[in-house]
Give the backbone structure.
Amino acid sequence: MTYILILITNFHSKYLFYMDVRYNVLQKRFSKTELYMPEKKIRVLIAKPGLDGHDRGAKVVARALRDAGMEVIYTGLRQTPEMIAEAALQEDVDAVGLSILSGAHMALVPRVIELLKANGQENVMVFVGGIIPETDVPPLIEAGVKAVYGPGTPTSRCVEDIQKAVLGEVVA
Amino acid sequence: MHLAEAVLSGNRLALARLLTQVENGTPEGVAALDFLFPFTGKAHLIGITGAPGTGKSSLVNQLARAFRHLKNGASERRVAVVAVDPSSPFTGGALLGDRVRMRDLAGDAGVFIRSMASRGALGGLARATASVVQVLDAAGYDVIMVETVGVGQSEVDIARLAYTTLVVEAPGLGDDIQASKAGILEIADILVVNKADQAGADNTERSLRAMLEMAYPSKGYRGHHGVRSGEEAAADMSQMPAWVPPVMRTVALDASGIEELAQAILQHGEYLRATGEWQRREYVRLKNELDDLLRAALMARWQSGVRDDDYRSVLEQLCARQISPYQAVARLLEFGIQAGGANDKL
């Protein structure tokens, strides 16, 4: 008798578990497709300041952020700091990624940060990718850069850093 | 409300932040829309649509420059651009690349460009595009260009939003049968053959003109008598009782044909105002917006009225083929109405 009861409870809890999984799926569908739910999306500007034409890295990062569910605005090549700050303003982005391989980062990056601040966007997270000598990283961080990503950095680290900086948590 | 007030006083950061609120549908964004609505209705809304890669963004770039140079009497025109690109159906992320083609507009304080992701909407725009346009209208932009995602044959939402709709074609995208199909070409107020310096542009123009001849047979349309300049065509049209979409050739990369196209757009605006069509389009636009909002609100009310358990049990009966989809809907509506009625009494 007890044995049967255990069996029944067992079955019951399992059944409940399955119901739960299905319920979650239903819930998701129910709210996602039926009704427009307001949602906050992380918006990131990816820009290439300066004169080098190597945009593969910028495109890889842009694609990785897109695949992490972010809305990525790509500006294209040869942008001045003024153009980047203006785009960041109009697009109301949460983060700005600068890709530089020309060696001009010490001139361009602080200027972008300065302009962002002047526009009232001091809360925007700025990160830099490209070829940045190690000795230049501390002064860039000092200037307000949140992170510098060299060659070989896993894109997931970039994604996690942005999520942490913007949302305060990493979204799996 | 301070964001909305700052927008009216011309603060660009406030405008950008409010656009985000409106795009995300936050309560603050909705309240700001209520506040700003009386200030809307002045801008000329221009839609730019067409297949991917036909040069919509480059064309918008050139048109914005042209509108900045074409003075409206003594005052200059302020131009806003809303560029929509698709969201991924899998991750919800998006790569918004329209700004890449609009770099000529950087540094001009009279131009405001905003990229939007479609966020799952399928008509070529995002759900919040109409609201975003309203905010830009209230902010005092005289010309607002809305660039749709690259569309196929039937994403025609833009025609409900814009006063003047441009459909952009490029050489090599199909023959005259494509041109005769229903959908995207029907919504054009102006047809643009971009990349007109490339091989096949004549064929594209010819099939578009042939399509127009069938659509407007009684108007004595004489498109087959050789190639006419866009300006000539537009001038011709303005004397006609009905607007026949002119076919204009442009090369967005070197700006040829752009001045004429901008003039034709302004002429279309004048035509709409002179014939009362402007008010009619505004009526249709606001009616559509009202209907959409009503649908969403009714859905939300029903959803708050129906219990998850009831929805689930009906869905399971449906999956077990005990009831039909129509019966399931009838049953769910009863739940919603009963509960909704009870809520109303409270």
User: Anything to note?
Assistant: The helical segments of chain A are 2-34, 56-67, 81-91, 105-118, 137-143, 155-167. Chain A has two domains: 1-39, 43-167. The first strand of chain A starts at residue 43 and ends at 47. Chain A is about 50% helix and 15% strand.
